[in-house]
Amino acid sequence: xxxxxDDQIFELASRQYGLFSRSQAFSLGAxxxxxxxxxxxxxxxxxxxxxxxxxxxxxxxxxxxxLAHLDVGLHSVVSHEAAAALHGLTTYAPGPxxxxxxxxxxxxxxAYEVRQSTDLRPHHVTTRDGLPVTTPARTLVxxxxxxxxxxxxxxxxxxxxxxxxxxxxxxALYDELKRPGKHGMRLLGRLLAARGPGYVPPxxxxxxxxxxxxxxxxxxxxxxxxxxxxxxDVPHRVDLLYPRERVIMEADGxxxxxxxxxxxxxxxxDRDAQNHGYGVYRFVWEEITKQPxxxxxxxRTALRRAA
Length: 307
Known about the structure:
Distance between the termini: 81 Å
Mean pLDDT: 89
Structural class: alpha+beta
Strand order of the largest sheet: 9-10-11-12
Number of strands: 12
Largest sheet: 4 strands, mixed
Number of helices: 14
Order of helices and strands: HEHHEEHEHEEEEHHHHHEEEHHEHH
Low-confidence stretches: 254-260
Strand content: 15-25%
Oligomer: single chain
Radius of gyration: 26 Å
Number of domains: 3
Helix content: 40-55%
């Protein structure tokens, strides 16, 4: 390796929110003498043992992730809630930093959480903008140990709908990692069993709320995301369906259904459904969230009439 240039360090640090490690600098040709000179001149700033920053770089959540990764070691991986936020999983926002390392590898720095793992394998790791992070499937498996079933269930469903991580991916990783005593496996197993063959996750927050209203009201479980019964060959679907009673339910979110062209399309499809003997019941946000009794009453009447 030839002599280090400041341009090389700047290019490296720019990809890592202004940060770089001593080992990275030495791989580019740095020496102890050059390092001491730049630190003394304020051109580099020591921010952790063996981790340096270029001056003037602003603090941010992503910079804190990089700092933790470089501080703990280049073998470390962003994981748990921090990984969930990086992948954009529902209900997880940027916050505390969690890093996973091989078992017995590292002490716990006070600024972030360091988890040790005996079963983190290369295919459980991906990168986001160069930062090593657990895959969405491995992240969901790790989060099961946090014992937040409602939050985890929603993240699993939404990741499937958004194609961030399919249910089959989580199930395959569950089968790979399950063993007696592994935290979270019993909870994850229950959630996956409830999402067995034929399970269709709710497509939206409002649809999920409507399902909860139906369950709380003692109404039977509908079919989710069903193809149009009279046109199964087309890609269109209905939110919820009682096929025997020929009752269709749609959850109309305000921001999605405020456009005139979308409303016109909905009305045409409603008329098409009625012409084929199906009743269509559209519920808006206010009804589902503030008037669940009205929703259940309307559907009970519809089911009784069909019976």
